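Tokens as discussed.
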């Protein structure tokens, strides 16, 4: 079951987009980038002026070269004139290079800031997306999309602002000079060559785009599989599936290889065709110029001028072919990155939402119904957790216990009913203030690949070491950490793999305690601890929970005997509620679960006892993340 389908490669029909659609995508992305450029609009203006000056100097160079040739070809050359022209020639070339470097220097900050802002906007949006998206995402593919999209932004900005505009201006200037100074045939052949070149480039590049898309898709799949396989290193080893994982990875790379070969082959076709078109155009123009010299309508300087202009014209034209290909590739690369921003955020702060200020810690579920993917998970759940009291939620797997936790931290919104803290509907307050008021210890905590200090201090970043140690002591962890060679600077490895399950749970408990929340949520927070550690941690939690509202999801009923209220769930409904002794006396589902656990604690090892009839919920087998 999935809440949101992952975006995959475009189908063949969509891959064959026409030119109009391509231009639409280009302008759409340019509009997205415009706010980033506007931040440094003065720098952009200076860069454009420098760019224009560089191109103007570049166009003037052939003209000066023509005058030099004509002066040297004169029967009575004046030495001072060629020297001045040669000096001007050198100055113009230097000006062309100088203004080009100035352009790059001024625009460097603009380009890098745009890349940074776009990447951080995507990253921020990913954290704002609901849990349903992250349950279905492939981390490696998402990271690859952001990486390629960021590179595409830098490339596209360079192309648009520093190559396309100046090249168009340069072509217009050169064509205008050819029309004004020489015969109309020069301009006609020039424009025909440009038109054929552009049409050929457009058609072949559109054909090649499907290969690039296929390469990107296979690259993302291979990267995603590699990351996932390495993250699950232990599972791969447990089942001796190294060859299986290698085969899956290699199959993705084999498809990428085929797409890459087709991409390179089609590139050869494109380059060969472009070179043939340019060669024909240059040859025709030079033939006209040579004929003009033979007919004494043009001099040697004019021939040199035409040749220099043609080189100057067709060099950027060659580059424009590559530019068009790179634009197509960049658009393809950026599509997936910006598509992440377009994923709707279904859990959002209400307009004008204020911060939640918890004064007492009264939690109230009012007739809450919730379903996921069309499957009902909670049905008319209604209960109150009094301030500074402890409520435990128990029941068979899949009965909806963890779903209650996720609704309370607003990973989802209920279909009907409301959830209130101190009378405030949690949908009417900011998510940040809500979650700052809650301390959550999940059953399977995941740690960052950083030091123990950083992982505990994540509950309150920047907390001094003394406070971190105090929280670790309450979690029965300080003695273990101080006994390590590097103490609190010991790194825990990817997802905390260097620590045992119990040690990871204690780190998670410590960072939740360091946060000093008004409401504590424990999802079987001591399940991985040994008996002695669990007893010590429970004593610390009992002391801490004495002046906080605490909700505990528990499987081991012995850990919640002293709870002020126990809610027993089955199939998404609360079927029993009361204190431990009251529920035992009722002889219902809780009493059956208690008897089974007591029997299991004293029975010799053997097959697991069956679940009592009716204990399993109708929603068993749904995502464990939903409880």
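Sequence:
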């Amino acid at each position: 079951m999935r809440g949101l389908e992952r975006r995959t490669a475009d189908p063949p029909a969509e891959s064959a987009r026409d030119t109009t659609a391509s231009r639409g995508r280009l302008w759409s992305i340019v509009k997205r980038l415009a706010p980033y450029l506007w931040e440094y609009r003065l720098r952009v203006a200076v860069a454009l002026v420098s760019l224009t000056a560089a191109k103007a100097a570049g166009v003037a160079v052939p003209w000066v070269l023509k005058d030099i040739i004509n002066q040297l070809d004169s029967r009575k050359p004046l030495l001072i004139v060629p020297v001045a022209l040669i000096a001007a020639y050198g100055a113009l070339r230097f000006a062309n290079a100088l203004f080009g470097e100035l352009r790059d220097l001024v625009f460097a900050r603009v380009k890098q800031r745009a890349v940074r802002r776009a990447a951080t906007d995507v990253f921020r949006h990913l954290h704002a997306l609901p849990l349903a998206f992250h349950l279905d995402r492939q981390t490696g593919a998402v990271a690859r999309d952001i990486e390629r999209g960021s590179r595409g932004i830098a490339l596209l900005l360079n192309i648009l602002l520093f190559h396309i505009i100046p090249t168009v201006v340069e072509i217009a200037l050169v064509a205008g000079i050819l029309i004004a100074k020489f015969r109309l045939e020069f301009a006609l052949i020039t424009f025909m060559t440009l038109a054929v070149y552009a049409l050929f480039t457009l058609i072949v590049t559109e054909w090649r785009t499907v290969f690039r898309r296929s390469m990107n898709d296979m690259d993302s799949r291979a990267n995603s599989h590699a990351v996932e396989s390495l993250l699950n290193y232990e599972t791969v080893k447990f089942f001796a599936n190294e060859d299986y994982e290698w085969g899956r990875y290699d199959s993705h790379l084999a498809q990428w290889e085929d797409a890459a070969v087709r991409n390179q082959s089609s590139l050869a076709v494109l380059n060969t065709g472009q070179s043939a078109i340019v060669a024909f155009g240059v040859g025709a123009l030079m033939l006209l110029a040579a004929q003009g010299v033979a007919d004494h309508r043009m001099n040697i300087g004019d021939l040199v001028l035409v040749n220099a202009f043609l080189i100057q014209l067709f060099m950027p034209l060659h580059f424009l072919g590559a530019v068009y290909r790179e634009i197509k590739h960049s658009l393809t690369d950026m599509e997936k990155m910006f598509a992440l921003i377009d994923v709707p955020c279904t859990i959002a702060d209400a307009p004008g939402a204020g911060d939640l200020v918890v004064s007492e810690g009264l939690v109230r579920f009012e007739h809450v119904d919730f379903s996921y993917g069309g499957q009902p998970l909670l049905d008319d759940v209604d209960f109150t957790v009094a301030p500074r009291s402890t409520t435990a939620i128990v029941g068979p797997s899949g009965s909806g216990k963890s779903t209650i936790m996720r609704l309370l931290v607003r990973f989802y919104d209920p279909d009907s009913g409301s959830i209130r803290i101190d009378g405030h509907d949690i949908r009417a307050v900011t998510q940040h203030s809500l979650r700052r008021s809650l301390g959550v210890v999940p059953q399977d905590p995941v740690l960052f690949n950083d030091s123990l200090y950083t992982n505990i201090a994540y509950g309150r970043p920047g907390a001094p070491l003394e406070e971190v140690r105090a929280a670790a002591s309450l979690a029965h962890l300080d003695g273990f950490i101080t006994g390590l060679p590097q103490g609190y600077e010991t790194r825990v490895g990817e997802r905390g793999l260097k620590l045992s399950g119990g040690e990871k749970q204690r780190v998670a408990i410590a960072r939740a305690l360091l946060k000093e929340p008004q409401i504590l949520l424990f999802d079987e927070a001591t399940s991985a601890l040994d008996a002695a550690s669990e007893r010590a941690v429970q004593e610390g939690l009992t002391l801490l929970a004495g002046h906080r509202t605490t909700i505990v999801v528990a499987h081991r009923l012995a850990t919640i005997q002293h709870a002020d209220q126990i809610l027993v769930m089955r199939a998404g409904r609360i079927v029993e509620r009361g204190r431990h002794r009251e529920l035992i006396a009722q002889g219902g589902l809780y009493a059956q679960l208690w008897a089974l656990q007591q029997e299991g604690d004293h029975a010799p090892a053997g097959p697991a006892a069956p679940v009592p009839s009716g204990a399993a919920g109708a929603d068993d087998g749904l995502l464990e993340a939903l409880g």
